[in-house]
Amino acid sequence: MAVADEAEEFLRQFHAEHPSQPVPLGRRLHQVRAAIDAAGTYRHTPGELAFGARVAWRNSRRCIGRLYWNSLRVLDRRDATTPEEIHHHLCEHLRQATNLGRIRPVISVFAPDTPGRRAPRVWNDQLIRYAGLRRDDGTVLGDAAYVDFTELVRRLGWQGPSGPFDVLPLVIDTADDKPQLFGLPRDLILEVPITHPDCPRIDDLGLRWHAVPVISNMRLRIGGIDYPLAPFNGWYMGTEIGARNLVDEDRYNLLPSVAACLGLDTSRESTLWRDRALVELNVAVLHSFHVAGARISNHHTESRNFLTHVGKEQRHGRSVPADWSWIVPPVSGGITPVFHRYYDDADRRPNFYPDDRERDGASGQNGCPVRH
Ligand code: ARG
User: Does the beta carbon of 69 sit less than 6 angstroms from any atom of ligand 1?
Assistant: First the structure.
């Protein structure tokens, strides 16, 4: 869809959901069309930007946590240009989002792509992620999903990692500078040591996870305008850590170690040692976050909240676009209510899109040579 058409559709939606704006729809449409004719782009008002970001979350088909879409905190960072300013605002994002453990959903929106100037970018998938290093014997120290990215930041001068949970530095890339590395101050990163309520051997594994997932590789698209750097976060649902990050074979692959701590018989699949280890690891994740005072949700509560959201949206005359394969949790799917139904999977805008790293050839549209 052309920018002008998508802009019009968005402005109509904004005014329909928020009537009585200071500038009436007709006049605003006229302004925006004139700006697009003159410069190929237009600037969202702060109100449009906040609405657009919140509705992008509301339309995110993979997210089970959308009940609170309307309370997203929107930080307007469109005027930040230098890597130093951007780094400063990313640190401020972490501070406001972490909120000493009472995690709040926040998005920081940086300058959009425009015909005259490309938008700034961060090459990291998330603001906080752990490095991965392939050792000579083929095993990996840390998060195996980040081996290539870790190699890249090492080439840019980073010295780590020295342990399994070393936070990667940020790579900030702006139109006027070459990509630069920035560390995150330790005191801005809330981390939770993983302990089990009654199996101390699990504590001895020395596992930990960061409390706030801030996704930084999705492009926010509002009314025909692309914001490639618009990092956003919610709080964790335990299974993301306890059934995926620590468990997937191409991540930390920890089920065999957890099973050993629990003394399970791993000689045959039919003992269901994997399932038993998986449940206990998820118990440990939820327990640890509670002990640390870091907000977290579990998949039973979150599934019910999602259906509450579906009901609420229906009362506003809207369906909830959703992707079943992402909404159903990776453990105990069939005993959560979200399993037992299907969803409309419409692609509605505004929305978040995976960054398209293929668009300009091998090095990727965002300049990051790593595809991850
Ligand atoms: N699954 C991702 C992770 O483990 C985070 C995705 C967003 N999750 C969230 N609860 N907002 O880091």
Answer: no
Is 235 annotated in the active site? yes
Q: Does 63 qualify as catalytic in the annotation?
A: yes
Ligand 1 closest atom vs CA 129: 12
SS3 category, 237: strand
Digits of tens for pLDDT over the chain (372 positions)? 899 999 999 999 999 999 999 999 999 999 999 999 999 999 999 999 999 999 999 999 999 999 999 999 999 999 999 999 999 999 999 999 999 999 999 999 999 999 999 999 999 999 999 999 999 999 999 999 999 999 999 999 999 999 999 999 999 999 999 999 999 999 999 999 999 999 999 999 999 999 999 999 999 999 999 999 999 999 999 999 999 999 999 999 999 999 999 999 999 999 999 999 999 999 999 999 999 999 999 999 999 999 999 999 999 999 999 999 999 999 999 999 999 999 999 999 999 999 875 444 334 445 677 755
21 with 15: CB under 8 angstroms?
yes
Atom of ligand 1 nearest to the CA of 240: 4
Burial of 83-105, coded b for 16+ CB within 10 Å and e otherwise, reads bebbbebbbebbeebbeebebbb
The identity of residue 148, as a single letter, is D
What 186-189 contacts at long range (C-beta under 8 Å, 24+ apart), as own/partner pairs, is 188/91, 188/94, 188/95, 188/98, 189/94, 189/128
